Amino acid sequence: MEVAESNEMTLETVRDSLIRQEDTIIFSLIERTKYPINVGAYDKTKTAVSECSDSLVEFMVKETEAAYAKILHPAAASINVNSTIWEVYFSQLLPLITVPGDDGNYATSAVSDLACLQALSRRIHYGKFVAEVKFKDAPKKYESAICSQDRDALMKLLTFETVEERVKKRVAKKAMLFGQEVSLDDNYDEKKLKIDPAIVSRLYEEWVMPLTKLVEVEYLLRRLD
Ligand SMILES: O=C(O)C(=O)C[C@]1(C(=O)O)C=C[C@@H](O)C=C1
C-alpha cells in the first residue's frame, strides 16, 4: 500500500485516504468510549507495568510516523508532532469522550488509546504526503515562500477553507451514523449516540486539521533543502 501511495499520489488520492482515515479515527474513538477515563492507567505510581506500557504506546505511535517518513523526501524524517498529539489526546480529548470513573480495565483501555493515537498520528503526519503532492503540482507557487521561509504565506497557500468545512460536516455525520445503537425497529435515539458528533467535529477543527497543516508547513519549509 505504501508503495502505491508514493507512486501514484495525486491530491485526489491523498484526500481519499484522509476520508478513509476518518472512519478509522471515529471507530477507534467510539471503541475508547466503552471505558471510563481510567486515570489510574496513566499513573506510574499505581501500575507496576505502566512505565513499560507507556513507552510501548509511544514506540508504536512513533513507528507509524517513521514508516511514512521513509518513503518521502528526506525533509519528512525530521518532522514529528507526536508529543503534541499525545498532550492533546490525554489532556483534552480523552476527558471529553469518556465518562469519569475507574473500572480497572487499564490494559484494554490503554490498547484503545493506542489505536486512537496511531490513527491520529497517521492522519496528521499524512500531511507530508499532502504537502508533497501540492508542491509537485505547483512548485513555482510555493518556491518563493519556501526560499523566504515564510510560514504564514505557506499556510495561506495550502489552506482550502471550503474543504475544511466539508471535513467538519462529514466527520460529524459519520460520528452520528457510526455511533448509533442499531436496533431492528426504525426508531433511533439521539441520546444513545456513543460519541457526540460535535466533539468529533471540534476535534478536527481545533486539533486534527491545524496539526496536519503544521506538518504540511514544516515539510514545505524543508522541501528545497
Ligand atoms: O485537503 C487538503 O488540501 C489538505 O491539506 C488537508 C486539510 C485537512 O487537514 O483536512 C488541511 C488543509 C486544507 O485547508 C484542507 C484540508
From TrEMBL:
Enzyme Commission identifier(s): 5.4.99.5
Main location group: cytoplasm
Classification via InterPro entries: Chorismate_II_sf, Chorismate_mutase_AroQ_euk, CM_AroQ_sf_eucaryotic, CM_II_prokaryot
Range of residues in the leader sequence: none
Subcellular location(s) per record: Cytoplasm
Keyword terms of this UniProt record: Amino-acid biosynthesis, Aromatic amino acid biosynthesis, Cytoplasm, Isomerase
Domain Chorismate mutase: 112-216
Recorded metabolic or biological pathway in which this protein acts: Metabolic intermediate biosynthesis; prephenate biosynthesis; prephenate from chorismate: step 1/1
Catalyses which reaction(s): chorismate = prephenate
Superkingdom of origin organism: Eukaryota
Class in the EC hierarchy, top level: isomerase
PANTHER family, per database record: CHORISMATE MUTASE
Protein name: chorismate mutase
Gene: LOC115748158
